[in-house]
Design brief:
By secondary structure, the protein is an all-beta fold. It is built from no helices and 9 strands. The strands form 3 sheets. It has a 4-stranded antiparallel β-sheet with strand order 2-1-6-9, with no helix packed on it. Strands 3-4-5 form a 3-stranded antiparallel β-sheet, with no helix packed on it. It has a two-stranded antiparallel ribbon with strand order 7-8.
């Protein structure tokens, strides 16, 4: 899992806008294992979108890809306690990375 901060132009401001295992926290977002945490009050004002990315570690699984049997679920808990759930649809084009959800 990783998170990418995108400005209003749909682009990152710098390499620091990628939050992942090797850069696990930045400007209000944290990545740990299969969890991405974003404190929206701490996200800079010039960030329009946080894309939460799911990808396959191709170094560990070089032939792996998402397929019609791949299923995952993104659970979002808001500070109010409200929970939202998004489930993946079937994959059909050998994808190895996808956007799980955009905040």
């Amino acid at each position: 899992m990783s998170a990418v901060f995108l400005g209003r132009n749909g682009k990152v401001r710098s390499d620091h806008d990628l939050v992942f295992y090797n850069h696990p926290s930045h400007d209000g977002a944290r990545v740990g294992g299969n969890i991405v945490t974003a404190d929206l009050d701490l996200i800079p004002g010039d960030i329009a979108t946080i894309a939460v990315i799911v990808s396959i570690d191709l170094e560990a699984q070089s032939a792996a890809a998402f397929d019609q049997h791949t299923q995952w679920q993104a659970d979002i808990t808001q500070s109010s306690g409200t929970q939202l759930t998004f489930a993946s649809g079937p994959f059909s084009s050998g994808e190895t990375v996808t956007i799980a959800v955009e905040l």
